[in-house]
Amino acid sequence: MDLGIAGRWAVVCAASKGLGRGCAEALAKEGVNLAINSRNAEVLEKTADALRALNPAIEVRPVAGDIGREEVREALLAACPQIDILINNNGGPPPGDFRDWDREAWIQAVDANMITPIELIKATVDRMAANGFGRVVNITSGAVKAPIDILGLSNGARSGLTGFVAGLARQPQLASHNVTINNLLPGSFDTDRLRGNFKKVAEKNQQDIEQVREQRAQGVPARRFGTAEEFGAFCAFMCSEHAGYLTGQNILLDGGAYPGTF
Predict the structure, then answer these.
(1) CA 156, CA 101: separation in Å to the nearest integer?
(2) DSSP for 73-87?
(3) CA-based angle 213:138:28, to the nearest 5?
(4) CB-CB contact of 105 with 56 (8 Å)
(5) How confident is the model at residue 197, as a pLDDT?
(6) How is the beta sheet containing 179-186 ordered, strand by strand?
(7) Would you state the pLDDT for residue 209?
(8) What is the pLDDT of residues 61-90, one digit of tens each?
(9) What UniProt keywords apply to this chain's record, in alphabetical order (predicted)?
(10) Scanning 14, 51, 59, 254, which has the fewest C-beta atoms within 10 Å of its C-beta?
(11) Where would I find the H helices in the chain?
């Protein structure tokens, strides 16, 4: 299927690896020009080179730095001559017990996973509406649907973003001008973050890491973890010209792990 977005420009945050890179690769294959961001400049440059090799017809402009900083956001947006697609993505806050989190921990979580994407949305959606096309996809977490007790910081911050998007996406001045805003909720995907979590669990419980991995995989009805490639492909469809009637939704991609009807 031709997604109809060749030649457009996309901003992809946290794009140097994992799910963000999967999204960037999928968009690159569709002929979308990219402005990509991550904190590590060296890794980001290598990712940019790989994306250019994947599709020599596109432009790829890397902008390194913490996306939570205003000057980095401004530089990333300035790298795009026209912003048609925005993929909000950022690392999640650490797990733990809420009794151990002080005010600063909460502020950092909310700033990274709620306020930062809102600032990027604020800076882009009106221009999208004026151009008659816009796609915003926020990569949040399956924990928004099924909260995980040790991820309270993430549960709270990402749920705040979810509530904000639910109202904004339905504003006629955006929706009637072909601007959609949706959340894509990953379950267990085979990323560095997931592998790091397995390592921590294995060390804590004195288990073999492969045993931990297999136990976790068996808890997913699909009996496997997702891949960054399939996540990216789904994200690319949400950014396509065919997805103009999809807005204000939370799309859970988790291999069937969520047990609810709604």
Answers:
(1) 13
(2) HHHHHHT-SS--EEE
(3) 85
(4) no
(5) 78
(6) 60-64, 33-38, 9-12, 85-88, 134-139, 179-186, 250-253
(7) 85
(8) 999 999 999 999 999 999 999 999 999 999
(9) Oxidoreductase
(10) 59
(11) 18-29, 41-54, 70-78, 103-110, 116-131, 152-168, 172-175, 192-205, 209-218, 228-238
End-to-end CA distance of the chain: 29
The tokens 């065919």 sit on which residue?
Answer: 242
* This prediction's pTM: 0.95
- Spatial distance between the Cα atoms of 201 and 150, rounded to a whole number of angstroms: 13
Nearest to 119 by CA among 70, 155, 184: 70
Q: pLDDT tens for residues 84-126? A: 999 999 988 988 899 999 999 999 999 999 999 999 999 999 9
Beta bridge pairs of residue 65: none
Q: How far is CA 48 from CA 37, 52, 135, 249, in A?
A: 10, 6, 22, 30
